[in-house]
Write a structure and sequence with these properties.
There is one protein chain. With 92 residues, the chain is mostly helical. It contains 4 helices and no strands. It is rod-shaped. It starts with 13 loop residues before the first helix and ends in a 5-residue tail after the last helix. 12% of the residues are buried.
Protein backbone atom coordinates (compact mmCIF):
# COMPACT_ATOMS: atom_id res chain seq x y z
CA UNK A 1 0.00 0.00 0.00
CA UNK A 2 1.31 3.43 -0.90
CA UNK A 3 2.22 5.80 1.94
CA UNK A 4 1.30 8.76 -0.25
CA UNK A 5 -2.24 8.92 -1.53
CA UNK A 6 -2.41 8.44 -5.29
CA UNK A 7 -4.57 11.08 -6.89
CA UNK A 8 -6.80 9.83 -9.67
CA UNK A 9 -7.32 12.06 -12.74
CA UNK A 10 -10.92 12.78 -11.77
CA UNK A 11 -9.80 14.41 -8.48
CA UNK A 12 -7.00 16.63 -9.78
CA UNK A 13 -6.44 20.30 -9.19
CA UNK A 14 -6.56 22.37 -12.44
CA UNK A 15 -2.77 22.84 -12.59
CA UNK A 16 -2.11 19.11 -12.17
CA UNK A 17 -4.88 18.26 -14.66
CA UNK A 18 -3.11 20.37 -17.31
CA UNK A 19 0.11 18.39 -16.76
CA UNK A 20 -1.74 15.07 -16.93
CA UNK A 21 -3.46 15.99 -20.19
CA UNK A 22 -0.55 17.69 -21.98
CA UNK A 23 2.57 15.88 -20.82
CA UNK A 24 1.21 12.45 -19.92
CA UNK A 25 -1.53 12.27 -22.54
CA UNK A 26 -4.09 11.36 -19.85
CA UNK A 27 -2.32 8.12 -18.88
CA UNK A 28 -0.48 8.74 -15.59
CA UNK A 29 1.42 6.02 -13.78
CA UNK A 30 1.58 5.67 -10.01
CA UNK A 31 4.63 7.96 -9.77
CA UNK A 32 2.72 10.72 -11.53
CA UNK A 33 -0.35 10.13 -9.37
CA UNK A 34 1.77 10.54 -6.24
CA UNK A 35 3.48 13.65 -7.62
CA UNK A 36 0.13 15.26 -8.38
CA UNK A 37 0.30 16.63 -4.83
CA UNK A 38 3.19 18.80 -6.07
CA UNK A 39 2.41 20.02 -9.62
CA UNK A 40 5.83 21.67 -9.99
CA UNK A 41 7.58 18.36 -9.42
CA UNK A 42 5.17 16.48 -11.64
CA UNK A 43 5.87 18.92 -14.46
CA UNK A 44 9.61 18.15 -14.30
CA UNK A 45 9.23 14.36 -14.42
CA UNK A 46 8.89 14.01 -18.24
CA UNK A 47 12.14 15.99 -18.64
CA UNK A 48 13.89 13.63 -16.24
CA UNK A 49 12.64 10.63 -18.21
CA UNK A 50 13.90 12.20 -21.45
CA UNK A 51 17.37 12.85 -20.02
CA UNK A 52 17.63 9.28 -18.75
CA UNK A 53 16.63 7.97 -22.20
CA UNK A 54 19.25 10.21 -23.85
CA UNK A 55 21.95 8.98 -21.47
CA UNK A 56 20.97 5.38 -22.21
CA UNK A 57 21.17 6.01 -25.97
CA UNK A 58 24.63 7.54 -25.54
CA UNK A 59 25.81 4.58 -23.47
CA UNK A 60 24.55 2.13 -26.09
CA UNK A 61 26.29 3.99 -28.91
CA UNK A 62 29.54 3.97 -26.91
CA UNK A 63 29.22 0.20 -26.47
CA UNK A 64 28.53 -0.26 -30.19
CA UNK A 65 31.60 1.81 -31.10
CA UNK A 66 33.84 -0.15 -28.72
CA UNK A 67 32.53 -3.45 -30.08
CA UNK A 68 33.16 -2.29 -33.64
CA UNK A 69 36.73 -1.36 -32.70
CA UNK A 70 37.35 -4.73 -31.04
CA UNK A 71 35.93 -6.57 -34.06
CA UNK A 72 37.87 -4.28 -36.41
CA UNK A 73 34.74 -3.71 -38.48
CA UNK A 74 35.22 -0.46 -40.40
CA UNK A 75 31.67 -0.51 -41.76
CA UNK A 76 30.07 -0.85 -38.30
CA UNK A 77 32.43 1.70 -36.81
CA UNK A 78 31.53 4.33 -39.41
CA UNK A 79 27.82 3.60 -38.99
CA UNK A 80 27.92 3.89 -35.19
CA UNK A 81 30.15 6.97 -35.22
CA UNK A 82 27.55 8.71 -37.37
CA UNK A 83 24.68 7.49 -35.14
CA UNK A 84 26.52 8.54 -32.00
CA UNK A 85 26.70 12.16 -33.18
CA UNK A 86 22.91 12.25 -33.35
CA UNK A 87 22.67 11.07 -29.73
CA UNK A 88 25.22 13.64 -28.53
CA UNK A 89 28.25 11.39 -27.98
CA UNK A 90 31.48 13.37 -28.39
CA UNK A 91 35.14 12.33 -28.57
CA UNK A 92 37.22 13.09 -25.50
Amino acid sequence: MARIALIEPSKLLPKSRKIYEQKLKGKPGNAQKALAHRPGHAQQLPGLYASVAAARAQALQTIYIRTSLINQCHYCLQHHLASSKRTGVTAR
